[in-house]
Each structure stands twice: as structure tokens, then as C-alpha cells.
Amino acid sequence: MKCWQDLISRFEKEYADRTAYRWIDENTDTVCSVKYSQYAKNIRGCAAYLEKELNGIKGKHIALLAQNSYAYLVYLVAIMFAGGVAAPLNLQKDRREILYELEQIEADVLIHDGAYFDREGALTSDISGRVLPLQYSFPEETFEDLETVDTQALALLLFTSGTTDRSKAVMISQKALFSSCPDIFERRRCELLACGLDPQKPIREFLILPFYHVAAISVLFMRMNAGDEVNICFSIKDMFKDLVRMPSESIVTVPVVAQTIHDRVMKGRMKGLESLKIIAIGGAAMGGNVIPNLLQKGYAVSCVYGMTELVVGVIINLCAVSGKFAAIGKPDTVYQLKFDNGELCMRGDAMMMGYYRNPQATAEAIDDQGWLHTGDLGRMDEDGFVYLTGRKKNLIILSSGENVSPEELENKLLQCPEELEVIAKEYQGKIAAEVYCEQNVQQTVRDFIDEVNLKLPLYKRINAVIFRDKPFERTGSGKIRREG
Known about the structure:
By secondary structure, the protein is α/β, with parallel strands linked by helices. It is built from 15 helices and 24 strands. It folds into 3 domains: 1-20 and 28-173, Rossmann fold (3-Layer(aba) Sandwich); 180-391, ANL, N-terminal domain (Rossmann fold); 395-468, ANL, C-terminal domain (GMP Synthetase, Chain A, domain 3, 2-Layer Sandwich). The longest helix has 18 residues, at 36-53. The mean pLDDT is 91.
């Protein structure tokens, strides 16, 4: 497959009778479902509607500002299928950031479901392009396949969720999406075999990630290609209740949610988790004994490394097979990989075209040999497994000239038996740990830090501990947002 037209044709023929999506209708409290044949029909109808409403869709930048829904998934694919550029926006950002992002991508149209306007107030007076409501039903009209498809043209704009910098718009082509297909299928095959499932049969994915995030795009793309079912959960507070009503074998999630699943499993609170077999964790490092404990309980646990700039190409570590819980895995065949002065660099067809309207940032990220400099520091062991040691821009540079990776220290502190959130940083010329935990375990945390210090060289030791009374702010991918 090379483009959306090929995949939609597969929906209509090979996967027609398979269930594509399930979700719970909040108004009727019933489980709804749609087959791939209907999904394809809705995509064509939505594309025809947009083509007529916008007097042509090809090349137009169409922003989506809405909550997760089946209709959202229809629009997302319909826009790209018809030659437009889809731009999902983060519903949690404030008015100033949304306006900035709309201006950055030169949005011709904003499609919304009303949820953001209810919270922040109308934006129409500040937007130069058109504003359209997201429709939940689609006409019987059909948008026929384009005569020619430029797979290298811009098709998708996704904003980064950096921990310090202002978001940049990542340009993604259909070529970048579809060049990853062979490795997507191999990744899926390995995961299913690891937990005794048949790779030839469809499985059910439980999706709680927001659709504007690259991880959700990756999951959706993989499941669409395989004809798998996606069970959509609209709110994390309903996660376990929805899992009971929509049993699922697989979930891709962030460490905070993985920790919650782990805690329930270890306490024997299995309601909703009986069918779950595959747990993929991405977005940030997973500390503590979560991975070995879940493996011991029979789950196929994967650690996933990716970034918006790498689109759906990732490095994955199937922990049950590798036994190397700290590694992010081995690179797949989509990308070449190397280290440049300790920085992980990747190159391949599945990566971004660059940052939209930001040639300087693009040149800083992609060198003249086509290598994307990820900003992550790491190493590779003798078996070809990659380990991350920190972020290049987060390095603490001491007056002695020594460089210290805060992530290295944070990963050590996350082994504390007490649950905590932590960042390591420079504070008044020293290395400090800023920690959020329950007040009654603060002394236990101090004692654990003292033990860690005994095993560290003098220049890496943590000289100050700062306790905070509320959790850290996090990005959409679950990472702690660092200051400045």
C-alpha cells in the first residue's frame, strides 16, 4: 500500500465485514460499533461534503479541534484521502496557544465539535479562515479516488509536545506514513506471538490517547492496516468501566496509566483487565518494578520510543523476549540509526518533511546528510539494543566542567519503593531533586536518595531535595514539563 486510496480499498474489500470501531454512546449508554465497509463509506461521504462545502479540498489546511469520537476519525482520514492537509489540535491548550497554532499552519478551515468553545469562548472573531461544526452523520454522496496521488505532498500537520519549547508543526506526507507498513506488520506479529495470539486474526485495541497525538495516530494507523478493532475510550476516568464493556487485548499508554494498571493487577483487582494481554508503554521512562511485575503476571509488555518527527516509525523493546527492561529496543528496518557525539540520530523514508514555516528549526534538526538529530543521548550495547541516557538540551553543566544527565539521576530515583514524581536540576550551583510524593513518605524518599548518592561519583551526587505539594504539569504524552 502506498496511500489512503489503497487502504480504503482494503476497507471495502478485504476488511469489509470486520468491526473497525466500538465506543459507548454517552446519551444512550449503549455500545456502538461500525464495520470497515461503513467506515469507508463514511470517509467517502465526508470527503464529498467537504469538497462541496469548501469549493475544493485539495491542498487546503483543515484544523480539527474536537474531542475523541468516531466522527473525528472519519474527518481525519477523509481530509487526507481527498488531498487536503489534516491538522489535529490539542484541545487542552489555552486560547492564546490555539490561535498561535492556527496562524502557524495557515489554517484555511477550523472544524470543531463545540467543546473548546464551551470552555474558552468563541474564537471566530480572531480566525481568518472558515469555522465549521463537526458533523456526526455523513451524506450518501461519495468522493471517488483521485486520478493521481502525490504521496510526497504534505498530508498531515502534527504539533510537537516538547517539555520546554513552544510547539512546532511537523510536516508529514503520505509516503512517510505508508513506508512504515512492513515494519508495522512485523511489530504486530511479534507482539501477538509473544502472548500466544494468532497474528492472522484481528485483535481489539483499547485507545485512550488523544487523537491529536502522534502515538494515537501510530496506533490507529497500525490497526487500520491490519483490519483490527479499536475500542475508543473518551475519558480516562471511565477506563476500567469501559474495558468491562469493550474487552480488549491491547493497550498503548503512558507510564502514569501503566502504573495504575500495575497497581490493580498486583492487588488482584482484575475487573476490566481479564482480556488484556499486551501493554505498550511510551512517552517517558517507566521506573520501579512495573515492567518485571507485569511480565511475571503474564502480560506482553513493550517499551516504545518515538517522537512526532519520526511519525509512526518507532524503536520497540518487547521486554518478555529481550529481558532488557532498561533498553528502548532495536531499530526496525524503516530507519538507519547512528550516534553523533552520543546523540541518537535516525534517517529514513518514514520521518517528517520538516517543520512548517520554520526552516531554521528544520535545519537544526535535519543535517545535510538527511539525519534527524533527536536530541536524545544514548548508547548501543553489544546486542544492538539502544539505551537512552538523557536529553542533550537538559544536560546540567557544572562549574567543574562535568556534564550530568538529569534523566540518568531521575531513573535511579524512580526505583524508590514509594511512588513519586521527580526531576533533577541545577539549583544554586548544585544538583537538586525536586520531588512530589505523599508527605508521610518524605523521609523514606530522603533516605533512598542518600543510598543512591553512595553509589554515585561525587560530581553526580544530589545535594538538595525540594519537596513540592502538587504534581508536576505534564505534556500530552505524559512527560513532566520542565521549566524554561
